[in-house]
Amino acid sequence: MYKNFLLLLVIFTAISCKKEDNTNPPTFSIIKGGMFILNEGNFSTANSSLSYYNPGNQQIENSLFYKVNNVPLGDVAQSITLNNQTAFVVVNNSGLIYGINTSTLQYEGKINNLVSPREIIFINDNKAYVSDLYSTSISIVDPINYNITGSIEVGKSTDCMVKVDNKVFAANWSGYNQSKLNNTIMVIDMETDILIDSIIVGKEPNSLVTDKDGKIWVLCSGGFMNDELPSLWQINPVTHQIEKTFHFEVIMQNPENLCGNGNIDSLFFTNDGVFAMSIYDNELPKKAIVESDNRTFYTLGIDPTTSEIYVSDAINYDQNGIIYRYGSSGNLISSFNVGIIPGDIAFNY
Question: Is the Cβ–Cβ distance between 343 and 311 less than 8 Å?
């Protein structure tokens, strides 16, 4: 996929952005129940952006970070995570994380000097972990004071993460710049900040979900060069044992974007189209609930309250993309235009 290809080829460069006074408050209202859309933009062009969608009146507002703060968001806006009243935006190729007020969208602070950050997960209000594409360690950061306080050496690059009880499970998605196989989920003790285990799954685990029973699901593409069949795994977070494994039938497929519905008793993922299955199913779904119809489906989000499906179309990766909104059964509700390469989605509840 284009995203994976670029991420494996770019060389880290850092940019610096300074805080500006807020002289242009938005006229658009940021209400609870809407969703932030992070538009990645193109590498080395610093054209990423932030959008907000209100499903109640179907209103979309684009380029909000720039409109409020008078500075660009940066080079490749990778992921967005909400914590209390702050949205933490990880800007991968700029090597930083912005803190943005979720109501005013004003800049609150930033964490600098990260190598190639991917995602942030909050351990508590005073501690968070940041995964990294190029580094073999996970950064420990203080999200209150916006600084790096330590690191956890794991020996591999890291990407998506989930938290279960007192442990964080981190996927070793990328094989770039490392000799070890990228087929593991690394287990970290949140109290000691130490790597305690490593679980072997399929090659290139790209997304993680915890279900209603507390089990972890891992979706694996099978490798950038289609080295093996893509696969879906279920892990017991207590024993670290594999409890279920499903293999896709076609090695050239590239399933991604594993998500859970509102009750977390169903799983959704993209694989050209959008597919859904129960966490209790004994086989992978055969038919998409949303066909791609030659669109370039790029990322997926499931509303945790309504279970509505939001899937982005990156089109040609150079022009502004589109978000399609579907009901939980796959009926089209609406669509709206956003920025270049619409990526991560965060629901504002």
Answer: no
In sequence order, the 6+-apart residues with CB closer than 8 A to the CB of 52 are 28, 30, 34, 35, 36, 37, 60, 61, 64, 348
Cβ burial, residue 203 (10 Å; 0-12/13-18/19+): buried
Tokens of 266: 């169903």
Give me the residues of the chain with pLDDT under 50, please.
1-23
> What is the rounded distance in angstroms from the CA atom of residue 341 to the CA atom of residue 338?
9
Residue 57, phi-psi category: left (phi > 0), alpha (psi -120 to 50), beta (remainder): alpha
Contact 244, 234 (CB under 8 A): yes
Q: Which among 347, 349, 344 is positioned nearest to 159, based on CA atoms?
A: 344
Written as one letter, the residue type at 293 is: D
- Token pair, residue 187, equals 């287990």
State the pLDDT at residue 25: 54
Determine if the pTM surpasses 0.85. yes
